[in-house]
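Case study 2.
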Amino acid sequence: MSKFIVVGKGGREYAMAWLLSQKHQVYSLGASDAIRRFAPPLEEKKQISLENTLPEWILPKLCEFSDAVFLVGPEQPLASGWVDQVQSYLPQAKILGPNQQASKLESSKVWSKYFLLRSNVPTADFEVISKLEEFSTAIRKFSPPYVIKADGLAGGKGVGIFSEKEEAYQFAKKILTTTELGTHQQCLIERYLNGKELSLFLLLDGQRAVQIGIAQDYKRLLDGNRGPNTGGMGAYCPTNLTPEEEKSLQHYVIHPILHALRQENLFYKGFLYLGLMQTQKGFFVLELNVRMGDPETQVVFPLLGNDLPRLLEKASEGNLNALEGINYQPLKNCFGKCPQPKQFAVCVVLATPDYPKKQKKSYPLACLEQLEFELQNQKDSYLFHAGTKYLQGQWWTSGGRVLNVVSIGKSQKEARQKCYQWIQRLKSLPLKWRQDIAALRS
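Prediction:
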């Protein structure tokens, strides 16, 4: 039995911890009430904040778990340097997450954009502004729709797409002059790319990389990809590519990025999430993230099955080449792929009525425990907590994205049908969700 420490409290971390806990010992840091039920917290009293640096009092505690794989879920602890702190105190720690320097691939979109340019990786044309006075000149170089991005971390809400210049200006103003989306010194104006958006996930061990899944997520709040951007309202996996598309993706995107990481001495052990747009001209990288996606984790990880804990262990040990069933390309590239999944997974996110605006109040979740009980013995459907808390003998909402319902099937259609059938059991809850996740186009 292996040991894992999962850092984080959302749906992604719940999925990680719950799936691993079925056969292994899992502990938690900064976890939710729901996760702490099956992953005992390492904190003895005060819960750790995920927004700050790792408090020094927890470091000696980690020495007691030096044989555990340290799995960092959210981006903020990585950007705050948690990995650097743990490795400095415990050099032999088996930690999956890049250091603070490499985490700039996500924590600064401007830095990441220039990294992609240096790597000769296709990405959308862009302009960087640091003052509102620069907006009108910069935006003249683009035609609508206009894409505006905050430079730093914004909880998945730092990107806006607008048909009118005035709307784009107001969003840029919010980024540069308020703290509503965090504190940002810069923002980007990007050329809009039309195509199919994909999420590709790599697991790196410091030298090698394994492609563990390609998913499609749904960032817009409403059906038909309308409404404001969110942290993600659902996802499905796999998204199949033709052999020619796979070859193009590896040649023009994956290999140049892996080569650039080595060239720039960005020692990388952990997950690398490539947000892609597949256009008529090929693949473009929209963004790089230094962790698994949420809700993509909820569909990628279940399909890895028994390979999941072995992948995580070998990557944390810098030894992915010891895994059977993964054929690596020449040592120069050190890239391999997990076998294609034989099943499909669909995840639908259930959110509060106010989402993506800040939650105004907490809502009771009366029938939740009954559905959890019914799902206990199901091998193809799961209910993952994302933003819940346990008070006064029942579950309540504690965040915008509250629950994830996940189902697995032999086809995308079957997985989708199962997922929405279970969701119908929750229709009495004060939650909303999209009806078109993983809908097959005619």
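The longest helix spans residues 243-263.
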